[in-house]
Each structure stands twice: as C-alpha cells, then as structure tokens.
Amino acid sequence: MxxxxxxxxxxxxxxxxxxxxxxxxxxxxxxxxxxxxxxxCGYPMRAKNLxxxxxxxxxxxxxxxxQNLPILTLCQCxxxxxxxxxxxxxxxxxxxxxxxxxxxxxxLAYKGTTKIDHIxxxxxxxxxxxxxxxxxxxxxxxxxxxxxxxxHALRPSNITQFDNPHAPTIFEQVIRLTGAxxxxxxxxxxxxxxxxxxxxxxxxxxxxxxxxxxxxxxSADMICSACNYCQLQFDEIQKNALGKTSAESFPSIFISQxxxxxxxxxxxxxxxxxxxxDLSGIRNYL
Length: 286
What we know:
about 290 residues, alpha/beta, 2 domains
C-alpha cells in the first residue's frame, strides 16, 4: 500500500510531531509513503480568490496523478480543501478547462483520477481495524478520550464522503483499539475556533474554552485530534493565549501519537515532547 504523503503547510514548522508520529505508525502498519513536491492545499485562498485556490489544489492533485499515487492527508482542512477542489472542477467544465490550461504551463495534466484520503479513513477503510489491532502491544487502562472530529472532514458529506456527518464513528473506533475509552461530549462535532484566530481572538478563545469545558464535563482526560489547525488551537494556542498554568491546561494528543504508544513505539519516535502541553501523565494509563 503506497500513498503520497500530504503533510500540510503547518506541520513542518508548527507540528513536526504529527508528521513524525504518523510516518512511524503508518510504516509499522506497512504503508509506504512517498514525499512529493506539493504546495499549499489552497485552503487559505478559498474565500479570497477562487481561481488561485483551485490552481493550488489542482496542482497537488496533478502531481500525485503524475506518479499514479493516491494522496494521504494529515490535516482535515487540507483533506476538505483538496476534496472540494476535485469536486468543483469535475462539476464545472469551464473552470476545469481553465485550470487544465494553466497546469499545462507547468508540464502537468489533471484528469481527476487522484484518490484523496485522510489518515483516519486510511486506518479504517484501507488498513482496517483488525490489522491495526494485531499491532497493538499495550493497551491503555482507564484513559478517557474526547475525540475531536473537526469541521472540514465531515461536511459537506456528499463531497468529503468521510463518515456520517451527524453520527460519525470512525474516530471512536480507532481510539477503542488502543484500549482508551472515547467519551460522548456535547461539543465533539463543533468547530475548534481556530479559523477565527487572528481575526477575532476573543471569540476564538471563547469557542476553545467551551470545547475544553465540554470535554471536562464528559470526564475526559484529554482531547484527541487529527487536524493541524485543531491541534494548534488545543495545544499551542491554549497554552500561550489562555494564560493557564501547566496544571490548568487540558492536554490534547494526535491520534497518531495515541495509536503509536499503544503499538509500543517510543515517545522519541512519536515526538511526544514537541507537544506544548505536557503529556507525561499518559504513562500512568499504560
């Protein structure tokens, strides 16, 4: 099984632990990753300039198509952005013609054959739960996790085709494989607030605090994310912007780190120390 890894712009600098831990886990599960010269997924431009967004996204799809590889994204925003662009182009012949013409200038062709997966859909649909379970060497005991789905993977479901947008289960299924207990929490399908950061910080932090309070009310020990933007909000922004001490901060872990620990991978391999909020307490549950 081979994929073109689409890490997203944020991971290299802000979230190296997501890329590192994902590569380690996927390698252990027999997934071969190829790193191509991708550019931005186009998401930041989507509301500003449609053509600029489409050419950025389509270039990535064309690069993967040239290598005959499906794309595996780590970030749900990137996943949603690439899925939207692919859907839009396939349903808008005029725009498709223009984008194809622009890609030709870079020696690329886009036919719309590239499959786009998120790391969670690869776990669930391509690798499969039974195969993952065979790699589990130590299970968490009593660890309660609030899975945070993020907005861009679930909606609109006719485009993303990720999971049931109203009652998704894919995240919980992966968490259960580790022995951890996924909790039901009232804000699990709502926005993390990160898209508002640097635009309306007060509102962004208000949404973040509501999310954290909801997870705490459900007796969760930490939040688990599978998106660059969401993890930035829950980890770095929570620690640096809410003014809480380390003891007051509520930890958030990437799904790749959680799964990797249960597979017996080392904290160094999973780059646990790169998380801004201390995760050392998770050792107590193994």
